[in-house]
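User: Just a sanity check before I run the rest of the batch. Below are the structure tokens for the first item. I only need the designed sequence back.
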């Protein structure tokens, strides 16, 4: 398969999955089911037809408004779909695309990881709470990835506790004021998936992003001092998963 074709199909699949991610983002904080209930307008309750649910296309065709009540539809929908599609394409390219096999099991696991991180990041940014379901999903993906690379099982098992144990001590000593329990679980599940070396890099990057970006947000937009770490840790995790080993190699050569 050609590079352009694989990238196009991967991006298309990512956009389609992005549509489901929007459902998760909207319903999980409201404790609503993401499986059985039909998609509907959040303003008037109008049940969407199949032609209202075509990712990106329907939102553009309706000019960002509900077909029935004409109320604006959040720009979140096309943004999440587009971001997931672009990210999946990037992951496929970075992980390597072969002529016979578009991408391997690790690539698929990283795609699933990114989608879960995208959902929990938006929810945490809005509610300061990381859904336990997202952490369980990442943990399950990590177990699948572990089974695909059993010869390096210790790398992933140590990753489960390397960062999270340290964060758990901070959580206990501060009685939850310094860091949230969801962040502890997030780094544990991600550590099982990407291994302890990359997880340490991810945590360092997450703290760096959180410090710099949040300080800028507080100065520019008068943002509250309360910090949702989920989005920043997620940024660190996905960057580390894709380029963390290069950063480690660069650092070791720099010493």
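Assistant: Here's the designed sequence for the first item:
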């Amino acid at each position: 398969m050609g590079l352009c074709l694989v990238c196009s199909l991967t991006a298309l699949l990512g956009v389609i999955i992005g549509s489901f991610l929007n459902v998760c983002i909207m319903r999980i904080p409201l404790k609503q089911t993401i499986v059985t209930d039909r998609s509907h307008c959040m303003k008037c309750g109008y049940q969407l037809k199949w032609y209202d649910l075509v990712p990106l296309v329907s939102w553009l065709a309706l000019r960002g408004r509900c077909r029935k009540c004409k109320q604006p539809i959040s720009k979140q929908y096309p943004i999440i779909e587009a971001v997931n599609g672009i990210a999946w394409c990037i992951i496929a390219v970075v992980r390597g695309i072969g002529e016979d096999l578009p991408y391997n099991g690790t690539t698929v696991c990283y795609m699933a990881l990114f989608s879960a991180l995208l959902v929990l990041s938006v929810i945490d940014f809005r509610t300061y709470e990381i859904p336990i379901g997202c952490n369980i999903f990442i943990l399950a993906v990590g177990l699948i990835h572990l089974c695909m690379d059993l010869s390096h099982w210790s790398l992933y098992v140590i990753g489960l506790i390397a960062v999270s144990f340290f964060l758990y001590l901070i959580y206990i000593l501060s009685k939850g004021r310094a860091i949230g329990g969801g962040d502890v679980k997030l780094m544990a599940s991600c550590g099982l998936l990407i291994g302890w070396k990359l997880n340490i890099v991810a945590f360092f990057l997450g703290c760096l992003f959180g410090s710099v970006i949040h300080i800028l947000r507080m100065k520019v937009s008068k943002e509250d001092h309360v910090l949702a770490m989920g989005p920043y840790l997620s940024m660190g995790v996905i960057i580390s998963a894709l380029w963390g080993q290069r950063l480690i190699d660069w650092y070791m050569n720099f010493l």
